[in-house]
Fold this sequence. Notes:
- By secondary structure, the protein is mainly β.
- It is built from 2 helices and 20 strands.
- A 4-stranded antiparallel β-sheet has the order 3-2-1-20, with no helix packed on it. A 4-stranded antiparallel β-sheet has the order 4-5-6-7, with no helix packed on it. A 4-stranded antiparallel β-sheet has the order 8-9-10-11, with no helix packed on it.
- It is globular and about 55 Å long.
- 35% of the residues are buried.
- InterPro entries: Glyco_hydro_beta-prop_sf (IPR023296).
- It comes from Williamsia sterculiae.
Amino acid sequence: MLSGVPTIRAAEMWRMNTRGAWMSDTASVTSVRSWSSTVWVVLLAVVGMSVASPTNSTAAPSSGWMYTMVAFSNASDRDMDVYQSSDGTHFDVVQKSAYRPSAGHVRDASIFRNTDGLYYVTYTTASGANIGFARSSDRVHWTPIGDHPVPFCCLLLPGTGDGKGFGSSSGWPSLSPFTAKAWAPDWFVEGGRVSVILSMSTGGGFVPYVMHALEPTLRQWSAPVPIIGIGADHIDTTVVKLGGVYHAFTKNETKKVVEHAVAQSLGGPYRFVAPGAWGPYVEGPAVVKLPNGNWRMYLDAYTRGKLLYSDSTDGLRTWSPTTELPGLSGTARHVGVMREPA
């Protein structure tokens, strides 16, 4: 469009001037032909520049991958926004307020694409012992699958006491088996097995649990079991597998920092290793592989309302200082990110 419209107008002008020039003498004809030739040279140069020069769009060139991000926002935790990117840095809006459940919240969403071709999210409903599920074929229109109850957790696990009643100080085991909160569910998919990692509490410290899908439609689940080695007072746990090692990134609720632990199986036992210098008051880690083979962690700097990222170039061992994600920092909160071939 940038080059087509001027070209048509120039051609029309040339024809009008040429028709007028035939009524003049030879010098006028020569002058008009020279003028028109000059116009065409200039127009061709402009066309070449417009084709060769990049646009001002924030969308990155195609990398062969598509990244989908889901998030609630600083404005609303009842609505889930959807974004996409080809490089994991510059995101465009797919649909604002793409999904709103009929009741409750849609916080801490996590997304993946199942073998049936549909996209699935799981999220914090903030309505007691339930986590939410929804699905979509196009990431724009979402259908609720329903809330899944997880009524029991934490009984006699160290550090899960709610600080109420005899023997229930926060440093002691919980004396209650009834889940009060089920937060921050996160997908983990390995081979054909689909799992959800979630944080559960009876009123005291959160404990990371894992449960497994029992059938392909993701409506039936195994009972959640504690992940071994991470312990109580940890929330927002996400796991990625690199080689034969499972890497868990989890927020220590007492210290308000994200920690790093490794294991030889998804359920543990995990041991803690040196974390990145991500700073305090960050949560909701989401980790994804970049087109260049490096790894990226997104972090919610929740006290500042900012969205940060940090990269690893050496297989999750060391990490860059955090940087604000352009375009979405200040808007998107506690994001979930997936990648798939474009």
